[in-house]
TrEMBL record:
Protein name as annotated: Tetratricopeptide repeat protein
Family annotation (InterPro entries): TPR-like_helical_dom_sf
Gene source species: Streptomyces microflavus (Streptomyces lipmanii)
Lineage top rank: taxon: Bacteria
């Protein structure tokens, strides 16, 4: 996808200004809507981690809440609880 290519190029050229966390969040939403739920889980998790690294705790918490919601909807309640405990 275009977003995946943009991420790859940002990493390749060490573009520190590229908005990695928001891009991963968008990929999480895209995965949710296209049925790539495993990909969405990975992307929401990566978004939360990157928001944490960027010092944006509110955005990290939002990404984790969306991740937990997706985990519950896919029958992974224990994983959702673990994610919520980290918020």
């Amino acid at each position: 996808s275009l977003l995946h290519r943009a991420l790859a190029e940002a990493v390749r050229y060490e573009d520190a200004l590229f908005p990695m966390a928001p891009t991963y969040l968008l990929l999480g939403h895209a995965g949710t809507h296209t049925g790539d739920l495993a990909g969405a889980v990975r992307h929401f998790s990566e978004a939360a981690t990157r928001f944490d690294r960027a010092g944006e705790p509110d955005d990290a918490a939002d990404a984790r809440l969306q991740l937990a919601d997706l985990l519950v909807r896919t029958g992974r309640q224990a994983d959702a609880v673990a994610v919520l405990e980290s918020v």
